[in-house]
Amino acid sequence: MYKKLFIPGPTHVVDEILEATAMPMIGHRSTDYADLQAAVVPKLQKLLCTEQRVFLSTSSSTGMMEGALRNCVHKRVLMTDCGAFSKRWAEIAEANGKEVETIKVDMGQAITPEMVDERLAQGGFDAVCITHNETSTGVLNPLKEIAEVVKQYPSVLLVVDAVSSLAGAETRMDDWGLDVVLAGTQKCLALPPGLCVVGVSQAAMDRSAEVKNKGYYFDFWVFEKYAQKDQTPATPVVSLINALNVQMDRMLAEGLENRFARHSKMAAFVQGWAKKHFALYGDPAYLSPTVTNVHNTRGISVPDLNQELAKRGAMISNGYGALKGTCFRIAHMGDLQMKDLYWLTGQIEEILGL
Ligand SMILES: *Cc1c(COP(=O)(O)O)cnc(C)c1O
């Protein structure tokens, strides 16, 4: 049976977008494709609030996380570990032979500008990586304020995993001074998985020009060479790019401000519901607008709840990693609406007899 996804990726995809993926295939070196890429990139620039380059990477977000590190880091990188996805940054850097230093906070806590400033002051870093919205804990890091601090270190690039925030929370690449901003399509963009969009600043391009052993698939300059012709280096996931173009029109018609407000409103509702029946996990000052991590104070069985929800056509997420069982997560991102959350919480109340 079809289940509406209230999990933090992949998220619910509306019919119009599913239909847009079912296009007749076009050649990726044809003018039809070049026209498509030329149409979608400026819309993505609007979303990222940038006039700089935006590339289309046929990969998961993790692929481009690796790519960003290989383009931006000669030797040493500062990591900001506040949960499973920010921890992944460090794992990738180490697997690529980079030197890693990590600021680590307890799960549920946010990274603050002061912490970043203190470490960067030691010197010797090529870049700092931040996970804008830590999906495993439901915490939104204060990216704008962190970026202000990083700006004071001109040789340090700011590399941002915006996977579960882009299109759900404001992300102003140029105004805030972000160097790399990447996001897969299966979260707030509300498309099927398989494509990652990435904004790249001139400073990141300049760095990439100097870095050795970047590999080929994610090399920003190889992307740039093909982007000049409105193409990608290798065969891209054409059907998803077509759907992305349709989705960007829907998104810009909704209005980015309205879209972010809708996410905040859904978050406030789910947070209120969680506080009434359970408790919230994490620092209340930094709660995510796209996913709520509910502290399972009643000790309910999350798999059992999901099994009952499945019969009614919905799915939520267990806590991530160490938080499995002690928390469960309700995503409110992408194309979900208030009425979906009213319905979902009503179903949960009925199942649990709340
Ligand atoms: C989902 C997610 C990822 C991983 O994305 P993939 O597309 O599966 O590689 C990385 N970071 C964050 C914050 C996420 O939410």
**What's the average pLDDT?**
98
> Major sheet: size, sense and barrel closure?
7 strands, mixed
List the strand order in the largest sheet: 2-10-9-8-5-3-4
Counting structural domains, the number is 2
- Give the termini distance in whole angstroms: 26 Å
Question: Outline, from the CA principal axes?
Answer: globular
Short synopsis of the structure:
This protein has two domains: 4-10 and 255-352, Aspartate Aminotransferase, domain 1 (Alpha-Beta Complex); 15-253, Type I PLP-dependent aspartate aminotransferase-like (Major domain) (Aspartate Aminotransferase, domain 2), CATH 3.40.640.10. The protein is 43% helix and 17% strand.
List keywords for this structure.
354 residues, alpha/beta, Aspartate Aminotransferase, domain 2, four-stranded antiparallel β-sheet, 13 helices, 43% helix, 17% strand, binds pyridoxal-5'-phosphate
